[in-house]
Please model this.
Amino acid sequence: MARRKPPLPRLLLDNVSCMRNAQQILRNVNASIHDGAGLVLSGTNGSGKSTLLRMLAGFNRPTAGQVLWNGHDITDSGVFHQYKLQLNWLSLKDAIKDKFTVLDNVLWYELLEGKQGNSMAAIELMGLGKLAKEKSRMLSMGQRKRLQLARLLAIDRPIWLLDEPSVALDVEGTKLLEYIIHEHRKKGGIVIVATHLPIAMEDAMVLRLPPRFPRLMTFVDMLDRGGPD
Ligand SMILES: Nc1ncnc2c1ncn2[C@@H]1O[C@H](COP(=O)(O)OP(=O)(O)OP(=O)(O)O)[C@@H](O)[C@H]1O
Ligand SMILES: [Mg+2]
Model:
């Protein structure tokens, strides 16, 4: 009897390397990520966690190796067009419009997505219900992070790329983050998180990136600085 092939991973990092500003940041990174998986990126400041997330989001291209989605290279423009619709991106740049209310800051993401009806429930789940009609400039740091998380829920895309999602959250906020990650994975969603702070994620894979050290000065640096020191 012919053996069944194991299913393709939803995302495959196949020997991925990345250079930025003539410096090697990522070297031969490999990971197989199936539906429902959690991946934690850890490592010291500057080790390349955000760079890897940016690569998964299509902002940076690998200099070697491939990121495959359903077996297809995400740098292929036809593939990327479909792939980017799977992604939910959260980073320290929160893209919150201060003049909009909390509700509108979530709602316009949902409307752009062609969806409706999720925003208020998401805001309430993240504990911002009473602030929904307030201007967003009133929000504290942690409340702004909760608003970003409410957007993830309102848009509801399968692959979450989260860069330091618990920074500024209080204990209850971190528990909520853990809860929504758990629920998302239970539905088959994928969650990839770069973090220094502990975030409880059952059976998550951990990818520890090695530290990067300052490199020799490049020709471009010399031009910037007007010559070697
Ligand atoms: N826009 C950029 N152009 C060139 N190099 C960059 C750029 N942004 C970051 N780098 C470099 O890439 C390396 C990895 O940075 P990255 O932000 O991915 O690290 P990180 O692991 O996310 O660090 P942190 O824990 O501080 O968030 C660092 O050496 C950094 O100086
Ligand atoms: Mg980072």
